[in-house]
Amino acid sequence: MRIVIDILIGLSILFALAGVVGMIRMPDAYTRMQSSTNVSTFGVLGVLIAGILYSIIYLGDISMAVKLAVLIVFYLITSPIAGHAIAKAAYRSKVPASPKTIVDKYGEDLEDE
Questions:
Q1: Neighbour-count burial for 71-108, b at 16+ CB within 10 Å, e otherwise
Q2: Are 9 and 48 in contact (CB under 8 A)?
Q3: What is the pLDDT of residues 52-103, one digit of tens each?
Q4: How far apart are CA 113 and CA 27, in angstroms?
Q5: Most exposed of 31, 44, 69, 88 (fewest Cβ within 10 Å)?
Q6: Which CA distances in Å does 97 have to 17, 71, 85, 93, 103?
Q7: Rounded Cα–Cα distance for residues 35 and 38 (Å)
């Protein structure tokens, strides 16, 4: 079972590395934010699931596993909402999008207000 825990932590490290590469390669703030939010969510999930397995199998502490499971739920709810709020604030602050951006659905919705 230790191998599974190590694999989950290794996958989390790979997701974090992919997030760094995405932050460097993406053309504008919006795509960078999307890349970093998705990758950080998967990276954190891997570590938390590994922590749950470790606390149950090696520590025998169910209460710690429950706390980590609550953290997973909290992170899955708050991370996308925070990313959306930051992107919305950036859009309203007129942070420029990439010239390659073709569709602007959010701007179309603002025109209707």
A1: eeeeeeeebeeebeeebeebbeeeeebeeeeeeeeeee
A2: no
A3: 999 999 999 999 999 999 999 999 999 889 988 988 898 889 889 888 888 8
A4: 29
A5: 88
A6: 24, 33, 16, 12, 11
A7: 6
